[in-house]
Amino acid sequence: MKKKFRFQWGAFLMFCVYGGLFLLLFSRFLFIQVTGEAEGQPLRAMAHAKYEREQVLSADRGKIVDRSGDPIAEDTVSYKLIAILSEKASKDVKNDKWLHVVDREKTARALSEHIDMSEEEILDRLNRQEDPDVYQVEFGPAGRDLSHDKMKKIEALKLPGIQFVKDKKRFYPNGPFASHLIGFAQKMEQKDGTVKTVGQMGLEKTFDDLLTGKDGKMAYESDTWGYLLPGAEKQVTSPEDGADIKLTLDKTIQNFVEDSMNQVEKEYAPERMSVIVANPETGEILAMSQRPTFDPETRDGLSSNWLNEAVQYTIEPGSTMKIFTLASAIEEGVWKPDDYFKSGSYSIYDTTIYDHNKNGWGWISFREGFQRSSNVSMAYLLERMGGQAMMKHYRDFGFGQKTGIDLPGEATGSLNDVGPVERLTTAYGQGTTVTPIQMVQAASAIANGGTMMKPYMIKEIKDPNTGKVLREGQPEEKSSPISAETAETVLELMESTVTSENGTGRIFQLNDYSVAGKTATAQIPNGKGGYLRGPNNLMYGFLGMAPADDPQLIVYVNVHRPKIPAGEYGAVPVSKIFKPVMENSLKHLNIRPDVDQETGKAYNLPDFAGQASDSAAKELAENGIHAVITGSKGEVAAQFPVKGTPVLQESVVLLQTEGEPVIPDFTGWPKRSILAYASMTGANVKLSGEGYAVSQSVSPDSPVDPATPVVIQLETPEQEVIKSGKEEKTEEEELPLD
């Protein structure tokens, strides 16, 4: 029997539906195969992203080191504390080895004894365990930068869920050490949630861009669990460390400064102090510090004052300004050291100024006036040279202008050139403001034969990744505000303030070195147009250089409002900084002492003025001192060094007389004596090198001819030893170093 065909609509519909779905799925597969995209996303990149892992390789922040490469600031290994909260971390782990925090109260109590957070604050963080989305927590700044020692102590507690991540921190190994100069850097959270070390003040902030390195990364392909896939390659982008900064600071000299300031701060509790040590021949700053200070490691002691006071803070310098008033008068040709004036007071218009003892010392010479730090003597010098001339010389010395030192935020100071009264007070250091670094720059002209050196502190900035020097500091001559003869005269008078029985600086004498310097006692402005009153409301200072015959160091000290006990005076705390810093620093630098350690006896020069030159020479010879008479035998008109100066055997003393001078044998003479001879006789002397004379271009006993230059070669004792090939120890090598 023939079957009748019946059309199955149900089957047909199912065929259409499933056939259509198959065609749709096939079309999708074909599209993906051809284009490699799904929903507009590249599938290859999505798969790569799913299985690719990336690890950050952190760069080191650049080091800050002293002139010898000793670290002042550098990165070191630290640890970050984290707490695992999710119970998933302990899945399939036995009960005695939990990997998450189990007892929150116990954990909080134990951690509070080791990090700077209270038990309640820690517990608040750990209670986030109740949020299932929180896997782990950190503890903010208190849980970062942990030392290895602290990490080990916490680790020994064996607290479940407490782990550490190795990190880096900024390390300051010297504690309070030029802290306002160096500044500090600390970790700061960025807008994108990352944490980065950022300079907050000082050099750390100024050179933050250079010091900050560039992190690298390591990328690799892994399986679902994070393990490296077989045959997969690592792609490493190496980190680029930040630039290293080498300073001109000498760590040993800086420590001399820090130690002496600590002692004075403890003993006299001054409101503030500042100290600068510089090399006058190069302009290099060897030490710089201030009080109050702070520890950059912990920030303990950091107050609202973030200024580097040596550069950013202005003061009225007081009598140390008289150095430059004197130099100006000598340059103007009005300095007559043996002229007399009436000390005590001086009036101009309706203003009267006084010497520091009010009544003065009667009629005294201008030389004695400088030694006694007479304000009135400066007034008469100003009268002789004129206010405009004096102010021009001050500007030549760099006052009222930035020195250009390579440090941030330098202040300008202000020369008070308003009128005659203001110029008068400026002449002895009141009313005009300067920065300590300006005083040191100006003093370099006195110590350096008239040539003023620009101060600098950055010796070198180097890229550690390539070894390329990005920036190099070099000695730079700023100008020559005075002649070599003027500098020599000022230096001699500054030395006499320390050696003369009339000098205000006798307390600053050193055991082994001669000192040239000038004291200061200055009133402190009260901010209301007047000055603070009372013996404990003064600033005391000293600007000194040594050795006096050829200064190798300048040390400038200011102590504000020290608490002076009965029976003492303001120069005492200043001397307790200056003397150990200067003496120890010179020995550290192997500078030969003036006083022989074996014979050690110095002869104090009498005043030979008016005596017969042959009798004066005989007296000097009896004391083992070589006398040089500049002219014919006769009456002594002047001498060098001045009376009261202690000199050693075999030293040279110049006696100026009438008559035609001749060129002596300069062999063995120090630079200072040569310049003094040139000043006395008008000889055209040209010096080459440093130290003591070893040769000269004009024969001894030749007449002095100003038109004929006398070229004198100087060498240090070390150079002589090297040239001669001698192996025996020099006097410098035998000295004990502090």
TrEMBL record:
Keyword Transmembrane: yes
One GO process term, biological-process aspect: cell wall organization
Gene Ontology cellular component list: plasma membrane
Keywords: Membrane, Transmembrane, Transmembrane helix
Gene3D superfamilies: 2.20.70.70, 3.30.70.2110, DD-peptidase/beta-lactamase superfamily, Penicillin-binding protein 2a (Domain 2)
InterPro entries according to UniProt: Beta-lactam/transpept (IPR050515), Beta-lactam/transpept-like (IPR012338), PASTA_dom (IPR005543), PBP_dimer (IPR005311), PBP_dimer_sf (IPR036138), PCN-bd_Tpept (IPR001460)
Bias kind Low complexity: ranges: 695-711
PROSITE patterns: PASTA
Molecular function GO labels: penicillin binding
One Pfam assignment: PBP_dimer
Residues covered by region (Disordered): 695-738
Domain named PASTA: residues: 659-716
Keyword Transmembrane helix listed: yes
Amino acid composition bias (Basic and acidic residues), ranges on this chain: 720-729
Segments crossing the lipid bilayer: 12-31
Subcellular location: Membrane
Family the UniProt entry places it in: Belongs to the transpeptidase family.
Stated name of the protein: PASTA domain-containing protein
Organism (species): Bhargavaea beijingensis
